[in-house]
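Sat 14:20. Reprocessing the chain from the morning session after the first attempt stalled halfway. Input below, unchanged.
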Amino acid sequence: MQTRTSPDNNFDLLRHIAASLVLWSHSFSLSASSRDPLAGTFIDGALGVNIFFAISGYLISESWFRRNDAQAFIEARLLRIMPALIASVLLCACVIGPLLTSASLGEYFADWRLRWFVAGNISMQWMGEELPYLFLDNPHPSVVNASLWTLPKEAAMYGAVLVVGFLCRWRRLSGAFVPIFAAAFAYATWRFIESAQSEHALTFLRVSRYFLAGAILGRLTFDARANAVWALALSAAMLALPDSRFVQAAVPPLALACGVLAVARMPMPQSIAGRWKVDLSYGLYVYGYPLQQVIFHFDKQLAGYGVFFIALCLTALLALASWLLLEKPALAQQGCLKAIAKNLRAALSATRSS
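Finished this time. Tokens:
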């Protein structure tokens, strides 16, 4: 069996696993069978979200150091996130909502929650979960796409990379990226402990630590075997010191980031390694929750397993269409923003000179 030996070749595989874990977890909380067999174990929906943030911390920081160009960095982030996000929000607000709301269309379109949902989620300034009079008999009534809670936090971490990257352009701070992020990790861990939040609490303090851990370790370690050893050592420390609040808060992000980088960098069969031609992971994440709500809306006796398998198939089809029609074409436009800005500057310069 052929394997790929180039580094950093398994992130697409990991992202699809993470998206499937989130879809699995939501299938049980949004169904007639709320008992998730993986609940209370290490393998759950929270793990999927944490994997996403650890991967993102590594890849986004690497993207900055590879380009060292703020305009290209911002453009790449917008082109990757916005097309499917806008499509998901409009699908919920303009298709699912009007078709399935228990209110009249006049009441639906006049309700402030519709505008709040669209404006908040597309701008990523706040998370609007509810649409008016929708899914009222579901386990999570009115909640249309709770998965989007991570995106404002993700965008905030992109901003952190951009700001620290700019600071590191100064000669005296050229090597300060890791120390600054390590200090931020320590502060976030301390605040997480002080806030008395559980590991599964949906807070910025929780997910930012995984992003920071991925960014830090990605800059420090480059060997799959070393990452695996560190992941095991950190996990052993967590088991050996169960009463230490700091260890229990600081070790999981570091251990998971080491484990993610170890898997990403190990040789894998060529059929699943490397960059996948079709990337459904983001689509699975942003379209999964609303489709699961729709599925249960039409069959309220459906258990979690049924919701998961139906949702996986339907969401994969929608994610495929999103990739082919929106996400892939958008990514092919990278560099256009810089060209437009260059032409605008040239036009302004010509206007002034004339």
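Residues 5-353 form one domain.
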